[in-house]
């Protein structure tokens, strides 16, 4: 693997409200309700993005949803999203076939601090489909492996059947320069791995709390306990990054739906240093 | 321009001529008109369309319009009412707007943006609090990150003829927001009406080159000291009559009191009807609706005004974030008066008082802030 410095092209958007057409190149079923779409630009232009950014995906006649990009930022010829079918748009998208067209707006939002983390240990804590928005960051870390200290990927899923990107996790787990641990909330027959919440994996250590950047993505309750556990180990809030999810209609700060405290999650987030959220994160229904 | 700009006097008939000249330049002129027992903003063709001699009476949950029966000066006045339920935002940021149309073509589809040329609006009779509202929405829709093209184009081409207030109603509190009753910049021309039953005239202040050109098209004289003092006295009486006040540190009070028990209290009164957000001249939240033709071949995306008071406003899979009415009320008020400062460097409130008047249960945001201050941090 080359260790060339990764540079991302500018991510300016010409007309942020009008989707651009992309063709479905491949659709892969990941889990019973989760699938990965590989999209190919009609214009032939590469789709440059930063790890952690998202797009607004439009399904003809059904609607539009914000989805994090789950693909490799070093391979911008394909635009990859991993989607869990939880509403009418995402359910319709699960029925897409190769050659169908979707609309894309973006990329939008802030990114994981992959550049700022150079020289530090990196610990990635994620649960469920929360691994998808972190996968571009993992690709980046691995492509620039020498620039980082220890790297830990701690992943939790509900059951062994809900482990996303399982083959990839197994492959990463086989590397000598990476610590990958997976846990499930509930074991099924045949599971000999760890059982318990993802925060318990932090007890395994593998990083130096003073020089660690943590990237956390999952349900809010999981992120809350992860931050707490990281704090107990001595990781400071300005070294912990979380990705927030809110309702979004425009993705450019006009529609007001994604407001979280003073932030517009669409443009001030979705990735925030936790120090920016520490005063509001525990306020209910904010 | 110096601190003390020259002011001019024009007669009532010249106001009519001014309006005609603006229309003659191809502007779509919008101004106050009488409709459904209220003063609203709609297309006007001449000075005859303006609701002369009307006065409004406003209180929490109360709006009444009446024809003045008082002195002749009041009976003739063009602008003795204050703001009604509509605001200028509906022209720059329409309540519904087609964003684009998608047409199916076999397995693919194409997306077309609307091609209609945006109208050149002349806003005639913009009150000082509303001039502030325009400036606030400019910061929302034309920020450093993104521009709303439709808004920006219309705004750039628009003309603002402001009218300073010579009367206030009980729900007004622009004085404490520093937005009125006299406009401070942000207009092309600003008028102050002097309707004293003898010499019905207007003091004119020029705010731009466009305004200066307009003034050249009508008969005007330099304002004399007695004209200016008469205008100032009228604006001052509107100012003095204003009793309601927004506490100066509203932003701080709100940022510290997200867990205050008073939110439950106001939520028990609030009907979640969204009236306050609809009449607010700065509320900018919107949603999108995707529609399809019966054949399924044509889909459109429409943007419509939305309100943070609706439950599905904050919906993400699994349910809405703000289930409780208290959380939704807190979001609205905290955004308007506190987080707006962080986002746009200004308050989102202009002190126009519409949200108080048009609240069916008369919730008064100035009182709510005081209640939060009392038991709060």
Give the SSE layout:
The complex is a heterodimer of chains A (286) and B (377).
Chain A: E1 20-31, E2 34-41, E3 54-59, E4 63-68, E5 78-84, H1 88-94, E6 101-108, E7 121-127, H2 131-143, E8 151-157, H3 166-173, E9 179-184, E10 194-195, E11 212-217, H4 220-233, E12 240-243, E13 259-260, E14 263-264, H5 265-268, E15 271-273, H6 274-277
Parallel strand pairs in A: 7-8, 7-11, 8-9, 9-10, 11-12
Antiparallel strand pairs in A: 1-2, 1-6, 2-5, 3-4, 3-6, 12-15, 13-14
Chain B: E1 7-11, H1 12-24, E2 28-35, E3 38-43, E4 54-59, E5 62-67, H2 72-76, H3 89-92, E6 96-105, E7 108-112, E8 121-126, H4 128-141, H5 149-157, E9 159-163, H6 174-177, E10 189-194, E11 201-206, H7 209-216, E12 221-222, H8 225-240, H9 250-256, H10 262-269, H11 275-279, E13 286-292, E14 298-305, E15 315-316, E16 319-320, H12 325-344, H13 354-357, H14 365-375
Parallel strand pairs in B: 2-8, 8-9, 9-10
Antiparallel strand pairs in B: 1-11, 1-12, 2-3, 4-5, 6-7, 6-14, 10-11, 13-14, 15-16
Describe this structure in words.
The complex is a heterodimer of chains A (286) and B (377). Chain A has helices at residues 88-94, 131-143, 166-173, 220-233, 265-268, 274-277; strands spanning 20-31, 34-41, 54-59, 63-68, 78-84, 101-108, 121-127, 151-157, 179-184, 194-195, 212-217, 240-243, 259-260, 263-264, 271-273. Chain A has 286 residues and is an alpha/beta fold. Chain A has two domains: 20-108, Translation factors (Elongation Factor Tu (Ef-tu), domain 3, Beta Barrel); 121-243, Rossmann fold (3-Layer(aba) Sandwich), CATH 3.40.50.80. In chain A, the strands form three sheets. Chain A has a seven-stranded mixed sheet, with helices on both faces. A six-stranded antiparallel sheet of chain A has the order 4-3-6-1-2-5. A two-stranded antiparallel sheet of chain A has the order 13-14. With 377 residues, chain B is of the alpha+beta class. Chain B has two domains: 7-240, no CATH class; 250-375, no CATH class. Chain B contains 14 helices and 16 strands. Chain B has helices spanning 12-24, 72-76, 89-92, 128-141, 149-157, 174-177, 209-216, 225-240, 250-256, 262-269, 275-279, 325-344, 354-357, 365-375, and strands spanning 7-11, 28-35, 38-43, 54-59, 62-67, 96-105, 108-112, 121-126, 159-163, 189-194, 201-206, 221-222, 286-292, 298-305, 315-316, 319-320. In chain B, the strands form four sheets. Chain B has an eight-stranded mixed sheet with strand order 3-2-8-9-10-11-1-12, with helices on both faces. In chain B, strands 7-6-14-13 form a four-stranded antiparallel sheet, with no helix packed on it. In chain B, strands 4-5 form a two-stranded antiparallel sheet. The relative contact order of chain B is 0.16. The interface between A and B is large, with 40 and 49 residues.
């Amino acid at each position: 693997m080359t260790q060339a410095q990764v540079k991302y092209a500018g991510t300016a958007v010409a007309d942020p409200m009008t989707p651009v057409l992309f063709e479905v190149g491949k659709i892969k079923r990941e889990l019973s309700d989760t699938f990965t779409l590989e999209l190919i630009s009609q214009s032939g232009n590469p789709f440059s993005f930063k790890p952690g950014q998202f797009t607004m995906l439009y399904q003809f006649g059904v609607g539009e949803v914000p989805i994090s990009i789950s693909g490799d930022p070093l391979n911008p010829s394909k635009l990859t999203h991993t989607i869990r079918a939880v509403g009418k748009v995402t359910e319709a998208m699960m029925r897409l076939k190769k050659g169908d067209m979707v609309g894309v707006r973006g990329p939008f939002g802030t990114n994981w601090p992959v550049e700022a983390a150079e020289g530090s240990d990196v610990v990635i804590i994620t649960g469920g489909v929360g691994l998808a928005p972190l996968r571009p960051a993992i690709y980046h870390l691995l492509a620039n492996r020498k620039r980082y200290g220890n790297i830990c990927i701690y992943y939790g899923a509900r059951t062994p059947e809900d482990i996303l990107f399982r083959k990839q996790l197994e492959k990463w787990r086989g590397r000598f320069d990476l610590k990958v641990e997976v846990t499930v909330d509930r074991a099924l027959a045949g599971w000999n791995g760890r059982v318990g919440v993802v925060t318990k994996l932090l007890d395994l250590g593998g990083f130096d709390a003073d020089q660690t950047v943590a990237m956390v993505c999952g349900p809010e309750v999981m992120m809350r306990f992860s931050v707490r556990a990281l704090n107990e180990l001595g990781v400071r809030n300005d070294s912990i990054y979380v990705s927030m999810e809110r309702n979004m209609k425009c993705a450019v700060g006009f529609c007001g739906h994604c407001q979280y405290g003073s932030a517009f999650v669409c443009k001030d987030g979705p990735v925030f240093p936790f120090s920016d959220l520490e005063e509001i994160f525990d306020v209910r229904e904010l | 321009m110096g601190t003390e700009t020259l002011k001019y006097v024009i007669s009532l008939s010249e106001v009519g001529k001014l309006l005609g000249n603006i229309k003659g330049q191809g502007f779509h002129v919008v101004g106050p008109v009488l409709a459904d027992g209220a003063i609203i903003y709609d297309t006007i063709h001449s000075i005859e369309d303006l609701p002369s001699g009307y006065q409004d009476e406003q209180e929490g949950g109360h709006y009444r319009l009446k024809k003045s029966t008082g002195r002749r000066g009041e009976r003739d006045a063009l602008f003795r009412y204050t703001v009604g339920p509509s605001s200028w935002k509906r022209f720059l940021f329409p309540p519904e707007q087609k964003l684009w149309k998608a047409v199916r073509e076999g397995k693919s589809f194409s997306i077309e943006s609307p091609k209609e040329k945006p109208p050149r609006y002349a806003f005639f009779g913009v009150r000082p609090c509303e001039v502030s509202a325009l400036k606030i929405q400019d910061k929302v829709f034309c920020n450093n990150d993104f521009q709303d093209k439709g808004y920006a184009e219309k705004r750039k081409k628009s003309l603002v003829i402001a009218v300073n207030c010579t009367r206030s109603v009980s729900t007004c509190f622009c004085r404490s927001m520093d937005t009125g009753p006299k406009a401070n910049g942000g207009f092309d021309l600003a008028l102050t009406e002097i309707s004293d039953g003898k010499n019905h005239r207007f003091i004119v202040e020029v705010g731009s080159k466009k305004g200066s050109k307009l003034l050249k098209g009508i008969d005007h004289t330099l304002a004399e000291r007695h004209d200016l003092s008469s205008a100032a006295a009228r604006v001052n009486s509107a100012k003095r009559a204003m009793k309601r006040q927004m506490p100066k540190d509203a932003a701080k009070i709100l940022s510290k009191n997200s867990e205050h028990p008073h939110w439950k209290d106001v939520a028990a009164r609030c009907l979640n009807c969204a009236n306050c957000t609809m009449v607010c001249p700065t509320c900018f939240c919107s949603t999108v609706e995707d529609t399809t033709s019966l054949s399924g071949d044509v889909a459109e995306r429409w943007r419509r005004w939305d309100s943070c008071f609706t439950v599905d406003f904050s919906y993400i899979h699994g349910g809405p974030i703000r289930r409780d009415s208290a959380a939704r009320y807190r979001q609205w008020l905290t955004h308007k008066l506190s987080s707006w400062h962080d986002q746009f460097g200004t308050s989102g409130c202009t002190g126009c008082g519409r949200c108080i008047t048009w609240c069916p249960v008369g919730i008064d945001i100035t009182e709510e802030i005081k209640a939060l201050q009392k038991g709060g941090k």
